[in-house]
Design a protein that fits this description.
Oligomer: single chain
Helix content: 55-70%
Radius of gyration: 13 Å
Largest sheet: none
Number of domains: 1
Strand content: under 5%
Low-confidence stretches: 16-20
């Protein structure tokens, strides 16, 4: 199980690698309303509540795990892959942009 989590985290990092040096600019032009809708439609908050309890917000900013805008986008892509959501790249970016706006605030 740990190896699987590591592999998924590595995959997310590799997928986000081109975006690492760009900061939150990777979210420029993202459709925030689409991101908000996709978060609701895919029941992201309910999934996060199931993983961490409470209102689910404890999943944001786990100690040292998500520390760049590129890695945030990679983690959303990991959820997309793991849960077989079939989101398009612009949809993944839209979700990550909403999360950045509401929780992370990467410059």
């Amino acid at each position: 199980m740990l190896q699987c989590r590591f592999s998924l985290a590595l995959l997310a990092a590799l997928l986000a690698a081109p975006a690492f040096g760009q900061g939150a600019r990777i979210f420029d032009g993202a459709d925030l309303e689409l991101g908000r809708k996709l978060i609701a439609d895919n029941r992201c908050v309910a999934c996060h509540r199931g993983k961490v309890g409470g209102d689910g917000s404890a999943i944001y900013r786990p100690a040292g795990r998500i520390n760049t805008a590129g890695f945030l986008r990679g983690m959303v892509e990991q959820c997309n892959t793991e849960l077989k959501l079939s989101l398009f790249p612009d949809e993944v970016t839209a979700i990550a942009a909403v999360l950045n706006r509401d929780h992370y605030r990467f410059p």
